[in-house]
Amino acid sequence: MTAKARVLVVDDSPTMRGLIKAVLRSDPEIEVIGEAGDAMQARAAIKELNPDVITLDIEMPNMNGLEFLEKIMQLRPMPVIMVSTLTHRGAEASLAALEIGAFDCVGKPLPGDRVPFAHLAETVKAAARSQRHRPGFGGAVVTRTPTYSAPSDYQPSRKIIAIGASTGGVEALIAVLTKFPANCPPTVITQHMPATFTRSFADRLNRLCSPQVKEAEDGDRLEIGRIYLAPGGERHLHVVNPAAPRCALVEGSPVNGHRPSVDALFDSVVKLAGAKAVGVILTGMGRDGAAGILRMRQAGAITIGQNEKTCVVYGMPRVAQEIGGVGRQLPLNEIGEEILKSTTTSRKNRVA
Known about the structure:
Blueprint: E1 5-10, H1 14-25, E2 30-36, H2 39-49, E3 53-57, H3 65-75, E4 80-84, H4 88-100, E5 104-107, H5 120-129, E6 160-165, H6 169-177, E7 187-191, H7 195-208, E8 212-215, E9 226-229, E10 235-240, E11 246-251, H8 262-273, E12 277-281, H9 290-298, E13 302-306, H10 316-322, E14 328-330, H11 332-341
Parallel strand pairs: 1-2, 1-3, 3-4, 4-5, 6-7, 6-12, 7-9, 8-9, 12-13, 13-14
Antiparallel strand pairs: 10-11
Helix pairs in contact: 3-4, 4-7, 6-11, 8-9, 9-10
């Protein structure tokens, strides 16, 4: 990105708009070109200013942020970053926004926060560079029913599936996991998101998917037909105990700036399962998971990366591909099927 990212700030609170503008204006690669207090003002500003990125409050008068986001995505698609309170209600609304097509969600500052909106500027710049609204983008379209059905004779092999994702991962995970049959292999996932979001996201996936999906708890046994999502917060998700594999929530410093970390999960899968695993790295900023999926591949595991054309942000999969960690790079709509082919005992359906 050579030109500055041009941003429109939309929030009904003048105080919050002022804080967001101050944070963004401190970055020399960002230009705040306007602000709006409600959807009507924002609509006029979009037409007049043609911003690269919008920050949008979820709770606003007259028309709430979700309703306005739907109209933006229908009439004038562009990268939108939702600004939300990090509560259970805020988490549900934020997940709905991500499914509609928001680039990402950031939390409003809480009392005592030393650095309000610490990652907002980087998120805005990533949104300005993102693939989603460029011609030819082939990413996820969230559907309520699977577009692919597993073969009727699908039988899971004795493998573990490990998936890592970040920005754009809500849509990507729905696209992949809704293809899984009820008897899928044990699947563990680290998706970068706030602690208040992961329980709601696991519940959402559980409603959409045939297998049972839950937020991982310390000591959960890895079982066929179960998908475990790392809880956001202060611990990493590991898989441990080869004799009776289970989830472990482990204290530790952030890895690649994240806790839970995809690398931490993948490294534990290497120790637990070696070649009896499938590693998948999906859309996301940064490099978390790249080194881990390389170690999975070196241990003999099958490794799959999302291709550039279908990533909202081609960051984590790009680094994994560049360092040799990705055995097969595929568009998002083929990844779920490829995972199943890699984990079946049925001769006619498995990957050679």
